[in-house]
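Researcher: Please generate the 3D structure of the following complex. Treat every line as part of one assembly.
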Amino acid sequence: MLVVAFVSFSLFTFVGDPINNMVGEETSDQERAELRETLGLNDPIHIQFTRFVVNASQGEFGISYQLRRPVSDLISERLPATLELVIVSALIALISGTLLGVYTGINRKGFLSDTILAISLLGVSLPTFVIGILFIYLFAVILGVLPSFGRGEVIDLGFWSTGFLTVSGLKAIILPSVTLSLFQMTYIIRLVRAEMMEILQTDYIKFARARGISEKSIHYKHALKNGLIPVITIAGINIGTLIAFSIITETVFQWPGMGFLFIQAVKFVDIPIMSAYLVFIAFVFVMINFIVDILYYFIDPRIRFKSEAVSG
Amino acid sequence: MDSQRLTLLNRIKDSDIYFSFIKSPTAIVSSVILVIIFFCSFFVELVAPFNPFDPSSLSLMDAFTPPSWSEDGVAKFLLGTDGQGRDMLSTILYGSRISLIVGFSAILFSLILGVTLGLTAGYFGGKYEMIVMRLTDVQLTVPSILMALLVDGIARGIISRELHDEMAIYVLIFAIGISEWPQFARVSRAATLVEKNKDYVSASTIIGVSNPIIMFKHILPNILRPVLVIGTIGLALAIIAESTLSFLGVGVPPTTPSLGTLIRIGNDFLFSGEWWITFFPAIFLVILAFSINLLGDWMRDTLNPKLN
Amino acid sequence: MSFLKINNLSVDYEMRRETVYAAKNVNIEVNKGEILGLVGESGSGKSTVGNAIINLIDEPGRVSNGSIVLDGIDIHENPENIVKYRGKKIGLIFQDPQTSLNPILTIGEQLIETIQTHLSLSAEEAKNKAINLLKEVGIKDADTRFDNYPHQFSGGMRQRVVISLALCCEPELLIADEPTTALDVSIQSQILDLIKRLTKERNLAVILITHDMGVISETTDRVAVMKNGDLVEIGPTKEVLTKPKEIYTKSLVSSVPPTNKKIERFIIIEKENKIKSETNIKILNRWEKKELRNKDLVQVKNLSKTFDDSFFIESSKNSVMAVNDVSFNIKEGQSFGLVGESGSGKSTIAKMIVNLFRPTLGDIYFNDVCITKIKSNKEMMKFRKQIQMIFQDPYSSLNGRLKVKDIVSEPIKLHNPSISSKDIDSYIYDLLESVELTQQSAERYPHEFSGGQRQRISIARALATQPRLLVCDEPTSALDVSIQAQILNLLKDLQEQLNLTILFISHDLPVVRQMCDRIAVLKNGKLCEISKTEELFKNPSHDYTKELLTLMPKIESIYN
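Model: Done. Output below.
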């Protein structure tokens, strides 16, 4: 985390002159110097860094260059939008991905398997934004059943605003979340399939067969359990990737989330937003990794019982 | 000398790879498609019917012509024209050249960086390996799009606007390349560890062969297979990444549009009914990526010793 | 009538370019209460037959012909029904206990699952049965160990668990596919004894598949010999081993290193592939043959090696002392053997002598020079020429991407930078012919050669720098016994004619007896005993040596 904070901070300080970005061209040199003083930009580096970290941990990131509003406000406004989108997409991708992956892993041949695989390959080749555009065109323009942009009506629950509780909100989330999940889903399908296929070749599966254990039992009890272990790591990284890819989806669907904010920030070199986004993302990733490690501990007995073999 | 060449050709013909290639329709079809695309992009000046960058050849009268097979279409603009009267087919071909150049260069950069680091990390081990692996771990948690965006954003902050436009392509190549290198490093290191433990490496060490020679003469050729598979799939990803960035507006500058740029521009006209301006570049992009992925998939299946 | 009758069994594998006939018209009978050995070298089809009985053949293989009659019923008539017999009437165990068990389920869970699949018992009853079974196969503290995971057992214990799983539903036929090949000699004898005991106690019909003639001799009542899918000979073990009828059986038996005496050369019976009876060591023309002086070439003094797990700190918790204060000397022209089981440290010592590892403590002297203290690369190169090594695995010891001539020429070019390419070529041809390979081999790639031929290429490469010391690390452990005999003969010839000094590392006592003048026995990194070969075998002084000698499977035991 500290590494990321440092990177963010260096971004902040060294990339471009913050003052230049903040004020217009007409401001006099005098005023610039004053502003610099107020913002503490003349202080030594380590003091600035500490201030940055302290502020960051309190969620204080300074003021956006472009939009002239505190970054923390901007982020908290848009956070729920992104998170809802990501969660729904994650669920779709994980559940359908795993199911289809298991199916194609067990039934290696057959028309349905081949079709699923072909479509999954297509899914990896379709950039998210193309899918988005396609969906918009199909469902919004031609069929007119789903909205093509925005979040629909949103209900404010204090610090969180949710679109789940309104019909229009639910309608609005369908297209973006499916779009977002597609890329990940295909990836998961291929991964789970590869895992299943590899496991089904192992000696212990062969031995189970030799003992007369039913195919069904072998597939679901033995193979699947072993196969799910690596999927958990993937699920973790998945959420991270989804957050990143949400940038694209939000742009296509004009979904008012953090990704959209970030893109604008990059275009206009709005450093505070960029660094805040970075810190936030890093935090999410670290958390996810942590949770995945804990899950691993519970699922894989080899990690739990590290005590070595008792010979006899 | 002749007998040597003959045996090389025969060896290729006899090899398992060739055999599997011939038997796989997807491999053949995708290779053919790719060869055509590469050829057209490379020799685009000869192949394209028009030069969309020559202002003198454009006429606003031709703008918004639909594809030739629809009602108002004309034969000379096979896929129609855009808002400025440019022929779609030609712009697509020029655009694909940009996409391919960026994609290839980025992946090449990634490959060289990643394989070098991964190979040396796996071979020498110790603290050096730990540092490199930590680096890849940290970077792998960051999705590549984000990485590329970040690098691009920083670049924009550092370089002035005009210079940035000129250097945009290099920045882009660097950004995408940097975002993909950990994959190569990881695969190379894993494969290097396997090879390092094999006896032929010990044999060469005992003979007294120096470390650099062992790494590049012995180990490198043996780890190329998985690297190539990752490379092919990475190429598809790089092309998609570039088009995504261009679509978002942070990719190639508007003066040298890639497929992504074209799609973005066309998107604005989607709702007013001129669907072909965004549709055809998109289809082309998908065919390109799909063919590469098909080939990569076939490679992965053939070169995988386990699934035999 | 016999309990199991295999009639005209044929198994084919449809590969990409050809069909491989793994088993051709095999006829075998097994009775209850007897152990039938199924022996053969690699590719003989013995494992295929074992798997075919319960139809466990993986694609692209299939049973193309034949019937398998178990207790009067042809179980292959309806292939789908075979599932019912698996585990219930027929048990099968594999070679590697490590990979045979599902790592994320406890052994208790795996036992209960198997029991409840075939027998209708409640969970409670199944558990009791399982625990009794574990006791029967010799697992102490069965109640607690019931809830352990596979990785918490050692190799031998794991194999016992595997056996318990195979027998938990009271099958009447047990097929054991190389059950002890992956285990140390001391554990091996325990498992074989267990199998013998269970055969008697439960009146099982047992098929024991192995390549080890000593195991056959000591464990089986009858034996079937297979080669390339054909059943060559079958009969009572004593008869087949002492009075073999077929040529192949004769050559197989004679290739096995005798355990009770030392012979000069292995007897190789003429087979289809003609072998020259005497090796023409062409390389002799170029060899600067050194006279043998009556002194030590190699002196190892107080050698120790510790491996650490952690990078930064030397913590005694994670360190493994692979070699612990070992000293010995090797005289010029002698053949010195290092013998021990896995984990004894023998390979580590070899690797320190060839300077692949640096010792933690101690020194190695070569020709009176302390080579462990050499720092500069240039100095080291002089010694690298003189010490070379050949390895156990013929498949990983050659770089598959290089032609044979590039592999063999690498050391030549490195140590003779000014040599002309014509000279190199003729040098390579001489080397290849000295190991009984043709000149044309130079243009080929390793994958075009068999395991035995690859070892020959390795030997050629090792000889290229004209070394004085040749370190052989289990050079024939991965080879078939008939090929082993050829390679060992070759090594003997080379040693004699080139005045080589050999350090021979092996776990296989009979082989070491044939190859070495003096032997050192190692256990867990420590030296137990050193003496002249015949002394060691006739009058062992250390308990461990005695244990090894008693437990090693002897083909001669059939005479008792």
